[in-house]
Amino acid sequence: MDKYIYEVTITGYAANGDGVARLGDGRVVFVRGAARGDVCEVSIVSERSGSCRAEIIRIIEPSAHRIEPDCPVYNICGGCDFRHISYEEELRAKLRRLNEALRRIGGVSVQADEILTTGQPESYRNKVVFHTTIKDGRTVIGFYRAASHDICPIERCPLLRDELNETLRGMWADPPPAGNEIKLRVGVNGLADPVEEILDGLVFRMSKNSFFQVNSGAALLLYKRARAYADLSASETLLDLYCGVGSLTLFLGRDSGKAFGIESNPDAVADARKNAELNGLNNVDFVCADAADWKTIDTLPDCVVVDPPRRGLSQKVINKIMEASPSRLVYVSCDPATLARDVKLLNKYEPRQVCAVDMFPGTANVETVVLLSKLKSTTSIKVKIDLDKMLDIFSK
């Protein structure tokens, strides 16, 4: 056998969905498109200290979790990670990824014992961005390939809601100009701008450029769990950081005496204010500011909700939260590694409950809701850990 070809058994998954195995010399190998339990022959394509990447040459013994991908461009598109394994195995992998991050990076014992799902792993995306280019003398429409700006032609995407796939078919029949980026979003009022969505009786209206969860059904599951964790009363104040169009602020804030949403995007703040008015919620205010800037908030919050971007919270925001000292913090995260890092840094708080939500079926991404309660002791615990190194190790 060639020195760069090995027989391996896949034992799990990396954060990006790659299969994980070990070579005889102890090195970790990451294999795209592998399933836990696969016995396969792989070829090394790149190496770094202690690990390497490989591609499958042939599957000697397929995993019991392996299925035939149902998308003709799955291996080249880069949009999905898990169309080659069963949905049950996908959910197991996501829950394990979250719990491993909390244990290894966060150093906490609390674990998620469930992952909420709508039961609809396809036709769920309400938003899409198409790209166009010229290939072989004709306009093609599609998505970027993985780690590339090369466009993979797409005629139908199994993740998109039917209205978006119908629009895509029309675009192929009458192609738009090449070189365009086409953003589409669908709501209860169809393909409109602004789009409207209804969650638990609340109406949310947003422009195409404002953030809203791409899976409306899973968003409702997440918001309900966040509302239960926040457990607000009419005498309490809520502060929602990174509030976007105000969806969480309004969903949770209707239980509070007063709610504030902080968002740096002025268009989203404008949408949030309109949404508060649309739903008749007069106890909610929105401020256009950085997440660490609460100068205009005239009262300390009892509960803080954060839903930061993938990079997580900055140290400045963490310091600000601990300075405000709310009795509880609800952390909504789209990345287990940065979530676990921040949980460790929020050392005046203890994670009490954790729940995963399958917001992005077919992909390796997992959404999480965590309830953290303020520790009774006021003694700050010094954290000494190379967090960047831990994140790098965990994300391989």
Structure summarized in a few sentences:
With 396 residues, the chain is an alpha/beta fold.
Which properties best describe this structure?
six-stranded mixed sheet, 396 residues, 3 domains, 20 strands, single chain, OB fold (Dihydrolipoamide Acetyltransferase, E2P), eight-stranded mixed sheet, alpha/beta, Rossmann fold
What does this structure look like?
This protein folds into three domains: 5-66, Nucleic acid-binding proteins (OB fold (Dihydrolipoamide Acetyltransferase, E2P)), CATH 2.40.50; 93-119 and 196-395, Rossmann fold; 127-185, no CATH class. 25% of the residues lie in helices and 29% in strands. The chain contains nine helices and 20 strands. It has helices spanning 74-77, 87-104, 162-173, 216-230, 247-253, 266-278, 315-324, 336-345, 387-395; strands at residues 5-9, 12-13, 19-22, 28-31, 39-48, 51-61, 115-116, 127-135, 138-144, 151-153, 181-185, 195-199, 202-206, 237-241, 258-263, 284-288, 303-306, 328-333, 349-357, 367-374. The strands form four sheets. It has an eight-stranded mixed beta sheet, sandwiched between helices. A six-stranded mixed beta sheet has the order 1-5-6-4-3-2, with no helix packed on it. β5 (39-48) and β6 (51-61) form a beta hairpin.
Question: Could you estimate the helical fraction of the residues in percent?
Answer: 10-25%
Listing every helix as H and every strand as E from the N terminus to the C terminus, the arrangement reads: EEEEEEHHEEEEHEEEHEHEHEEHEHEEH
**CATH H level of the largest domain: which superfamily?**
Vaccinia Virus protein VP39
The 3D shape can be described as globular
Domain count: 3
